[in-house]
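INFO batch 0412 | record 1 of 1 | parsing
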Amino acid sequence: MIKQEIIIAGRSLCYRVNFNRRRKTRSLIKILPDGGVLVDVPVSVNLLQIRHWVAEQAEWLLQRRDEINASTGFVRPLSYLEDEEHLFLGERYRLRLVGRRHRLRPQGIFSQSLHIHVVNMNPDNIKHRLWYWYREQARTVFQQRLAELSETVPWVGSVPELKLRKMRRRWGSCNSRGLVTLNTHLIKAPLAFIDYVILHELCHLRELNHSPRFYRLMDQVLPEWRKVKQQLDERAALIGNE
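INFO prediction complete | emitting tokens
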């Protein structure tokens, strides 16, 4: 897969080229659900020919991309490529991929970039390595915040057991045994959002429901919780994006 870019009327149009050995003569150009452009061509076609073809279709491609981007709640799925922006604790960082030859370089946040060790540059492998790093950070950060916040909640006698889980529709949960489960995606959110979810689950240790009594507990431990919840809801698609 080769990434290319052309400028049309001052606007950037990026596209990916796939040289398909199964294609003999016919080429295909299409807009992907994420708004990206894919050009699928026979191996006999050269990049200059492809560039001319994309330029001829540029007006339609840009219009369709704008329509997708304007869709309500649209968040472009991540590509897991070098220089892509990724969230960590509410901040955006450029992804930097560290190959085998530079393994002595540490992983983590350096100079406003997120450095990740990778075995190869395949997006699936990059996603796997990035999520391994996210889980490690989430376990450390969540455990620390859970311990600190537990001390501020009168009915919590000891720090609850913590479990991490990647979830689509929930930020956290708590069961009758006192196990607190937090969504790994939360490591991408600001600390204020993480604290809100943890306090929400600590309130469930006393009220395993969403009754008026539960919300009175929330008002007690975090008076501004409604504002924080609204902010989290507004950024949910971005934080949960993969």
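INFO post-check: The chain has three domains: 2-69, 85-133, 138-239.
INFO record closed
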